[in-house]
Amino acid sequence: MATNHPEKASAHSNGQPAKAKVFISYSRKDMAFADRIEAALRARGFAAAIDRNQIYAFEEWWKRIEALIASADTVVFVLSPNSVASEVTLKEVAFAASLNKRFAPIVFRRVDDKEVPAALGKFNFIFFDDEARFEERADTLAEALHTDIAWIRRHTEFGELARNWSLADRASGLLLRSPLLEEAERWIAARPQGAAEPTKETQYFIQHSRRAAKRRRRGRAALYVLLVGVVAGIIAWMNQSTLEWFFTVFPYMQLEIRDHVLTAARERALKPGDSFRECAKDCPEMVVVPAGEFVMGSPEDEEGQVEKGRESPPHRVVIARPFAVSKYEVTRDEWDACVIYGDCPARGDFPRGRLPVMNIAWEDAQRYVAWFSMMSGKTYRLLSEAEWEYAARGGTTTAYSWGKEVGHNNANCDGCGSQWDNEKTAPVGSFAPNPFGLYDVHGNVWEWVEDCLHVNYEGAPVDGSAWKGEEAEPGKLGHDCDWHMIRGGGYSYKPSFLRSAHRDRGSSVYRDGSTGFRVARPLTIVPSGEGR
Fold it and tell me: What does pTM read for this prediction?
């Protein structure tokens, strides 16, 4: 059973901010306690109401429950032996989880940990099982519900807009337009640490809105080019751009990059394990990875698999030629060089230096490699998914490049035993390298790879090349390579996400506070024994 609110998400008619909206999931057998929680939340300024007052005569019951959940900022789950045995409350939890709603579990009567719904198991509980401390616990709950509430309200708002768009067969008239579209993009880039990730549906809705906006702009541009004033403006802009190129970008390219690019002879002389950097500073240091072969994926009995079948079937991949991989994840200083001398977007007022750049979309990473390829005259690109796993394993076959278990202080994650765990990124190179001399392939930030989204390895390439195509997961999110693979796990994720075989995905335009990348460069080295 549930509670929610009649108020809207924007503001009241008297100009006061709207109340935070709460949906309370509870068992009918715990109704007296739910009534008390509702009263306590109302007294503390929240919009909450028992469902028996919010579901009206002749309404379809479950559709109304779905609407209440969708419009809520947070789902408060009353944990008790009654609620974990209730099909209704478990159905409510499952639906809320499908919308990536924020949960606030509260304990009315204790239950065995194994009976707690999986969607709630990762959260801290607030205990109401001591009658004498009810008001104190209610204050604690209110404080938790107010955390990041501005961002959470936008999660609710954009989630409802995306859901309505999907229910209306993705009608173009329901897509976001300026300035709300820009607000949505800023919102998705500003996700607080620990906040619920926007659903794939919401991400795709915002992405599709941006594409529609670009199409509208192209249509208007076709008319504007007929106007002399606009043509003159374009010419003036081109002249300004040309001056900037010759007086700023060109000198930087020649002095800071081109003078440091490998000669053909130096490149041919490289051996596996050698490192090089094709700039004076602020570009990736590269390590030569040897040719070889490995089994990609994981056996069915490997512990820690998040989704059965995603890493299957295991298959042999041959990497025929050596190639270079950045020793570290691309840093913020390296990214800033592209911001200043290229067209990479700025990534906020984060500390600079040797911290990995984050909040990077796949399309942002493509901008960077295109820019540095142009500046250096050499080919830089993202790794293929096969190249990434080959390089991350470093010749090992265990779950991590150092062994079967995550161990202590080998990486930065939620449970890795480092000083940065689940708090922030670590400076690159803070942990020991893998056998190929690469740092931070496990944890710190997720790393984009070139490949489009594929739900498993059925039909995957066996030559190490990137896997393109239009396949997508059920639900039609990801057609035309709108989604790509990410690897390696991040500082706020559990150790299972850091395994060499783990695969995840994100939309091409989605930016996340724990997502970055590293780069690859093809080489003209002849593998040992070839050509003899």
Answer: 0.57
